[in-house]
């Protein structure tokens, strides 16, 4: 569910990087306002401005006091090429729809960050020739919208591609150098261990390039998590990974660590309620973490009775809630006080009974997202596989979806 081209040529991109050109982000044609504090960009929840029944950001701002939004996702064009698009289909260069959303938010004193990547689709790091060309494509987005913040959401399937991750990390470093003051976050998958093998390889790539963003954030959901305690445990383990990778002490690692959650019912049927968000928020603030965000504002509203609790939706949470309950935790992380409201009781939902998927076959070919049953559990393929027996493992091809 999270993760439900006017490009400079390579030679020109290399010239841009070599010259160290400073992008005047606040002076672009987008009419950008002065930057908010970094804490607001660190708290910005994800919003899909073109898909999943986009909510009115002005209404969210009025109801919650939220000032910053993380717009998602910028990808390579579906037809190929090294130029930025929204969702692979809408060219950034000719965009007016997202620009209108940005203008609405800024007119009320807020601002946006843009997230590149996400789950699925073709990423620019996969198709651009090198880090400089990748950075040049992203620079178009920064300049178009006068950005003060950007998020690199590096996950499946891109983060399994060594060359693509090298391009993305290299591009992030170039953008950081060429846009002084740019807030840069890097978001990747979370596991009980903190992050899996590919996430650790991404951190090593950042270390080898001498790149340090404002934060590295993990997404502790869709991996066998069960409420806030499992998430804070993953954050503690991820802190240790940051320490060992970069040679930081614990406090420095927390100052470069972030949390990116999923409100309500996750893709794999986990549930995260308002109480869970409060627990993780308390952990994040008490450990002086740099970021607290979630996927997504499109989902931060209650489902209709027919849908509530029975499925994962891109447009509602599947838990009992008032509209924008989860956004208020981001507001608190930013250091502001949300308007008071009468809370909706939020009992932990009982996941619906799950039927078994078609039985796994050793001869069948499975691709990402295919579901099977084996040993009275349902399993989802993380990538292409054949003749790999479903077994629970952070690094294996199969994701355990629970008993059936």
Which whole number gives the mean pLDDT?
88
How many runs of DSSP E, i.e. beta strands?
17
Instruction: Please give the count of helices.
Output: 12
Task: Report how far apart the termini are.
Answer: 22 Å
Helix content: 25-40%
For the sheet with most strands, the description reads: 10 strands, mixed
Task: Work out the strand percent.
Answer: 15-25%
Radius of gyration of CA atoms, rounded to a whole number: 20 Å
Secondary structural class? alpha/beta
In the predicted model, the low-confidence regions spanning at least 5 consecutive residues are 3-30, 342-353
Inertia-based shape = globular
Order of helices and strands: HHEHEEEHEHHEHEHEHHEEEHEHEEEEE
Sum up the structure in keywords.
404 residues, alpha/beta, ten-stranded mixed sheet, 32% helix, disordered N terminus
Characterise the protein shown here:
Mean pLDDT is 88; it is low at 3-30 and 342-353. α1 crosses α6. Strands 1, 2, 3, 4, 5, 6, 7, 8, 9 and 12 form a 10-stranded mixed beta sheet that branches. A 3-stranded antiparallel beta sheet has the order 14-15-17, with no helix packed on it. A two-stranded antiparallel ribbon has the order 10-11. It has 404 residues and is α/β, with parallel strands linked by helices. It is globular. β10 and β11 form a beta hairpin. Helices cover 32% and strands 18% of the residues. It is built from 12 helices and 17 strands. The chain has helices at residues 10-19, 38-43, 57-64, 97-107, 124-127, 131-145, 162-178, 197-209, 228-246, 250-255, 274-286, 327-333; strands spanning 46-47, 68-75, 85-86, 90-91, 111-117, 149-153, 183-189, 215-219, 257-262, 264-265, 271-272, 291-295, 365-366, 371-374, 377-381, 385-386, 398-403.
